[in-house]
Design brief:
This protein is of the alpha/beta class. It is built from 22 helices and nine strands. The strands form two sheets. A five-stranded parallel β-sheet has the order 2-1-3-4-5, with helices on both faces. The protein starts with a strand and ends with a helix. This is Response regulator.
Length: about 500
């Protein structure tokens, strides 16, 4: 049964009490969510509780029913009004009806008449709700259509898509945007369960997103969650909170096999396709990573700058007798290089920008083994150059203080604001200074340091997984495991074994 809410406004206490008792008896679907003695008092109450109906006396001190209705009519959403009148002259009643009140009821209130009027109001509320729902659904469908067009449509220009999205209420100026790609791993799901699982993931996203977000079905088995905020750091925190909540619900409760990846933050909606492409690339990284590649060995060699060893690992990855696997091996190597870039602050665009890498199309399998190997060797050389350059840079005392503060509080809710308060700086300015000095954003550096601490704790072998997650600032062990796999390249349960087996 639907529940409807009303506020009663009358300066006579006995009438208010009598009406409440009568409504409880004859119309239990109506909840009296507040009462007031005059229009002035009712204004604040109505704005707070947002009722469906205001049942108000016309003649009251301080502010009467007509003045109350006139004041609320100026606002975007006005509840429906029923007037109560004890007058034989109905000039005031006519005035409220002309203003748009539903109807009036004379005092003393007669039970059949009250039931009839409340049923009339219920029908109007339900009709309005259905209209709003239909409008919301239509708007969502249009937003989804124009976002699809912006991503890969050929019928409209990108500027047209942006203009249409703006008209539909999607903000486009003076904002930072970020997106997440959610992929249902169909290879791990029975065919008859795929639609159900995908629907669950979609609805979970829609339930968990904050106000400044939108969810669409982007491609087969893939969902896009678009976030925005006027502040870049707030946006990244919002995205992390969503990711934590999503993993807790989707993986913790339903255990649905899925992958999630984030695209880089951007400032113009027209950059959406590029960010989406990189998020899909990261999904591809996760799908093509396999245990045959010694991820930790790769990362150790990269960290130590052992270029000859890395070249040998690259050559071993491309077996001459298996040309059908070369493309996937190339993607897998890129995934490892991306993890290294993230760890040492090297710009990730060096690794995962498809245009810069001239990544072949999905249907191109004609490249020789030497071409794949040479591409990776050239990329490794460039990444190692940037990593060495980053290590040689001297740090200012401010950056040293910030890094010390981060290391000392990795198990806390570290934010840019708390760090800025510690060093007595404006958060936005600190964010710019830190990124310029480190070549990596504040929040990415925090994640990087948490993973480094987690690796040391795993090797020590003194703590359980959930304890390590808490010690590095994660409430959800499942989310910690996911982040660790993405950054380090191995599950926490595998990492110690990999390190112990790696050649010295």
């Amino acid at each position: 049964m639907n529940t409807f809410r009303m506020v009663i406004v009358d300066d006579e206490p006995m009438i208010r009490k009598g009406l409440q008792a009568l409504i409880r008896r004859i119309a239990p679907e109506w909840e009296v969510c507040g009462e007031a003695t005059n229009g002035r008092e009712a204004l604040a109450l109505i704005r707070n509780v947002k009722p469906d109906l205001v049942l108000t006396d016309i003649s009251m001190p301080i502010m009467d029913g007509i003045e109350l209705y006139a004041e609320l009519k100026r606002e975007a959403q006005t509840p429906l009004f029923l007037a109560l009148s004890g007058y034989t002259d109905f000039s005031y009643v006519r005035q409220m009806l002309v203003m748009g009140a539903v109807d009036y009821i004379t005092k003393p209130v007669e039970e059949p008449i009250l039931i009839d009027k409340l049923n009339q109001v219920k029908a109007m509320v339900l009709n309005t709700s259905h209209q709003k729902l239909e409008e919301s659904e239509q708007s969502q469908q249009l937003i989804e259509y124009w976002l699809h067009q912006l991503l890969n449509g050929k019928s409209h220009t990108a500027k047209t898509c942006e203009d249409r999205l703006h008209r539909l209420g999607l903000p486009i100026t003076d904002l930072f945007f970020g997106l997440a790609a959610v992929y249902l791993n169909v290879h791990s799901v029975d065919a008859h369960d795929r639609s159900l699982y995908f629907y669950f993931l979609l609805k979970t996203c829609q339930e968990l997103i904050p106000n400044q977000s939108v969810v669409i079905r982007a491609e087969d088995h893939m969902i896009m969650v678009l976030h925005w905020s006027s502040d870049e750091f707030t946006l990244k925190e919002q995205m992390i909170r969503f990711e934590e909540d999503f993993f807790r619900f989707a993986k913790g409760h339903a255990r649905i096999p899925m992958l999630m990846a984030s695209g880089p933050v951007f400032e113009h909606l027209l950059q959406l396709p590029s960010s989406w492409k990189l998020a899909k690339m990261e999904i591809r990284f996760q799908l093509t990573s396999d245990t045959e590649m010694d991820t930790v060995g790769w990362l150790n060699a990269l960290k130590q700058g052992q270029q000859a060893r890395i070249q040998n690992l690259i050559t071993q990855a491309f077996l001459e007798a298996q040309p059908e696997n070369w493309r996937d091996r190339f993607i897998g190597c890129l995934a490892i290089l991306g993890q290294f870039a993230n760890q040492c602050g090297v710009p990730q665009y060096l690794v995962i920008d498809p245009l810069r890498m001239e990544l072949p199309g999905e249907d191109n399998h004609s490249l020789s083994r030497e071409v794949w190997i040479n591409k990776l060797n050239m990329l490794v050389e460039e990444i190692l150059f940037y990593a060495q350059k980053s290590r040689q840079q001297t740090e200012s005392p401010l950056i040293v203080r910030v890094k010390d503060f981060i290391r000392a509080n990795l198990n806390e809710n570290l934010t840019l604001q708390t760090t800025a308060d510690y060093v007595r700086m404006n958060p936005s300015y600190l964010s710019e200074v830190f990124k310029e000095a480190m070549g990596i954003t504040f929040i990415d550096y925090v994640i990087q340091q948490r993973m480094e601490l987690a690796k040391r704790l795993i090797i020590e072998d003194r703590y359980k997984l959930y304890e390590i997650a808490g010690l590095v600032g994660y409430q959800s062990p499942k989310h910690f495991t996911s982040v660790f796999k993405r950054i380090v390249g191995a599950l926490p349960s595998e990492y110690k074994r990999y390190v112990e087996s790696a050649p010295r």
